[in-house]
Write a structure and sequence with these properties.
By secondary structure, the chain is an all-alpha fold. The chain has helices at residues 2-22, 64-68.
Length: 70
């Protein structure tokens, strides 16, 4: 029982020390340039599901894999 208690206390203390060592002054500010947005690019509806435009979704894809599935 003493071994479990001692191990738990050592683990808690080491976790606290490592946690405090990881906080090395988070006051540094990094400038980030805003992302460039193309106004001509069509907007994507996040709620749209594949096949809502009348197609099945697979019929619009090209390549060898779509030819084999027919």
């Amino acid at each position: 029982m003493n071994t479990m208690l001692r191990s738990s206390m050592i683990l808690a203390a080491s976790t606290l020390v490592i946690g405090l060592a990881g906080c090395d002054g988070g006051d540094e500010i990094v400038d980030v340039t805003p992302r460039q947005v193309n106004p001509d690019q069509p907007k994507i509806d996040p709620d749209a599901m594949p096949g809502q435009d009348g197609g099945s979704g697979m019929s619009e894809q090209g390549g060898d894999a779509s030819e084999e599935s027919k």
